[in-house]
Design brief:
The structure is a single chain. The chain has 82 residues and is of the alpha+beta class. It contains 3 helices and 5 strands; from the N terminus they run E-E-H-E-H-H-E-E. The chain has helices at residues 20-25, 34-42, 49-52; strands at residues 5-8, 15-18, 27-31, 54-58, 64-68. The N and C termini lie far apart (40 Å).
């Protein structure tokens, strides 16, 4: 059995673990769309601009467990169109 990989948000209030199978199946992408850039700005990061895009790790939530800070998790709607 493999050891889970720990993760945390930038401020450290949210922490969790990913199982190795989930991490191995994850996909890293750089998205340049307006929505991803708007979300980046909404969480307090600078707009990277359309040329640079936002670095995203896509994974399924099944192999992810939150160990601290679940009260900080929320959905955010950036526009009426989604």
């Amino acid at each position: 059995m493999s050891t889970p990989v720990e993760f945390a948000c930038g401020c450290g209030k949210l922490r969790g673990e990913l199982d190795a199978k989930t991490l191995k199946a994850a996909t890293r992408v750089v998205c340049h769309c307006d929505d991803c850039r708007a979300f980046h700005v909404a969480v307090g990061r600078p707009d990277p601009g359309a040329a640079d895009g936002v670095d995203i790790l896509q994974l399924t939530p099944a192999g992810m467990g939150l160990t601290q800070g679940v009260e900080h998790v929320a959905a955010r709607r950036l526009s009426a169109s989604w």
